[in-house]
Amino acid sequence: MSVSHAQLHSKIQTLLATLNDIVLDKEQVIHLAVTSIFANGHLLLQDLPGMGKTTLAHALAVLLGLDFHRVQFTNDMLPADILGMMIYNQSTGAFEFRQGAIFTQVLLADEINRSSPKTQSALLEAMEEKQVTQDGKTYQLPKLFFVIATQNPSQQAGVYPLPESQLDRFLMCVSLGYPSPKAERELLEGKDRRAMVAQLQPILTADEVLAIQEAVKEVHIAPVVLDYIQRLVAKTRASQEYHGLSPRGVLALKRACQAYAYVLGNDNVSIDDVQAVFGAVADHRLGQKFVPFHHLGGLTQMTIAQKILVEVAV
pTM for this structure? Predict the structure, then answer.
């Protein structure tokens, strides 16, 4: 039975409200995280340990009604631990491919930058082409396939920086930050967040997520908004200090704008929608390894994307 757009929008609002009950006082980050999935893009959650990154990723996977596997990345992990390996079957006398954790709809890659570059590179083909090649044979991943990864600051011990080619495969990169005093008090007096996640029930189904992704493509972008997007992109390419957005990054920005507008219940992309998603789509692609935190105390510099939004006229 098909679901109407009104029913889908109602479920999206329920999804957002439920996530806001789990991760308190982070409405905009949650909106961006949901936007990334509905735009058919991978999501990178970047922050200090203990900020709720894994809780948000786990809750999002459950509420979307998708199968998921969680992998804790470590420095001794090998590509075969994620992709799978050839195993000898004594009964048949032949080698058979045993699928790894990546063969799922949502891969929760926890602390992805604690694995070696060799292991990180194992995800490149899967994230871009939704397939895995082992021993010369290609295995298709599910049509709905997302990587929701968490990453610790590059200044911390035991982490490897993600290569630019892999960062570019994440549609969005967002940071949670410290909770407000009010939200922290609710955390102290409320239920354990892990227990709350364990009790969650799916709000959407896989077919509904696919329907939303198709509907997102139909959200209209007026020529004047496309002009603004192109001016922002041109500004990223005018600097000698960082790499500008690639064509893939530009298309990612367009999809993110459409999905953000759809989650709001709008049929058209506005300038506000572009400005809301630009930082999450652009900053990690512009050679900025770790976006400055607003929550570490004191004055912090503006991100590259924030500077560009200020400098480019609407």
Answer: 0.89
Distance CA(314)–CA(275), nearest Å, equals 10
Q: Where are the beta strands (DSSP E) in the chain?
A: 42-46, 68-72, 84-89, 94-99, 106-110, 131-134, 137-140, 146-151, 170-174
Enumerate the domain spans of the chain: 1-211, 218-314
Does residue 75 surpass a pLDDT of 50? yes
Cα–Cα dist 22/279, whole Å: 24
At residue 70, does pLDDT exceed 60? yes
The residue with tokens 């899967």 is 126
Q: What is the pLDDT of residue 229?
A: 96
CATH says 1-211 is which class?
Answer: alpha beta
Q: Which two tokens stand for residue 245?
A: 């957005």
What would the mean pLDDT of 209-222 be, rounded to a whole number? 94
- As a whole number of angstroms, the distance between CA 192 and CA 28 comes to 22
Coil vs helix vs strand at 268: strand
Count of other CB atoms within 10 angstroms of residue 272: 13
What number is the average pLDDT over the span 155-162? Answer: 71
Look up the CATH architecture of domain 218-314: Orthogonal Bundle (1.10)
